Amino acid sequence: MRKNNNQSYNQKNNEFNSRRTAKNAAKPTRRPANKKPAAPVEEAAVEEQTDFVIGKHASLETLKTSDAKKINKIFLQDGLKADFVHDVVKLAKEKRLIIQNVPKNKLDLLSDRQNHQGIILAIAPFEYASVDDIFAKAKAQEEEPFILILDNLEDPHNLGSIMRTADAVGVHGIIIPKHRAVGLTSTVAKTSTGAIEHIPVARVTNLTQEIKKLKDRGLWIFGTDMAGTDYRKWDAKGPIGLIIGNEGKGLSPIVKKEVDQTLTIPMVGHVQSLNASVAAGVLMYQAYNSRQPLV
């Protein structure tokens, strides 16, 4: 009896296909090229709706203030042996906050590779004050208002540095525009080394109109200009608003029209401009000298 070749072939083919299917099933599935694994939905949603306080000084300052209630979670680097870890753990326990130990690469990702020093706080989005809040702070301290106005400042490091100096000299608050300017971010918080917790920041839709309102409330408005009065002659007593211009363009023309007096910082070197935060610091300390003279 002759074998049925077709039947024999089909049987072998089926056996081969079965073996190949079993072999492929045993292989690990390859991840498609250039695709990162998606973060868990819950974790991604939390991080998307969260701001971060980055670094040792800013984190400790936040933990010590009433703003600690805004903290959702403390991310601490695995195996961190830094001196401040004991303080963080103690404060977290007192305030019943969650500490999550994570690998360094997780902190690198959350901080966009900033120098996080092994700690990041996940907090509710930064809150802005109102202009009335700033006036209320001055009144509570029984002082004439000293308000800083930032005209389209763009660099978060400059804003953070300015906030740090503003806190040091007793500025009651800062006003910034909502559009075309840097707002409160984790970079600002880190650079301010905690000053963000003490300086109210109001964000307004129309900066020019707000300056007019400040003048109606009795403030004298000062701004910077190369052709202005030497800042060393500036008498900053009384209710004042000091405007610091954009890093590259200075004061915008429409804002400059509202200034009562312009000030200049004389320079005798080859470079004829200062970083915005440096210029702001020089002027703020002149105001401090005028308002708090030596006795």
From TrEMBL:
Belongs to the class IV-like SAM-binding methyltransferase superfamily. RNA methyltransferase TrmH family. This is 23S rRNA (Guanosine(2251)-2'-O)-methyltransferase RlmB. It comes from Latilactobacillus sakei (Lactobacillus sakei). Residues 1-44 are annotated as: Disordered. One of its GO terms (molecular function) is RNA methyltransferase activity. The lineage of its organism: Bacteria, Bacillati, Bacillota, Bacilli, Lactobacillales. Residues 1-16 have a biased composition (Low complexity). One of its GO terms (biological process) is methylation. Keywords: Methyltransferase, Transferase. PANTHER family: 23S RRNA (GUANOSINE-2'-O-)-METHYLTRANSFERASE RLMB. Gene3D superfamilies: 3.30.1330.30, 3.40.1280.10. CDD domains: SpoU-like_RlmB. InterPro entries: Alpha/beta_knot_MTases, Ribosomal_eL30-like_sf, rRNA_MeTrfase_TrmH, SpoU_MeTrfase, SpoU_subst-bd, tRNA_m1G_MTases_N. GO terms for cellular component: cytosol.
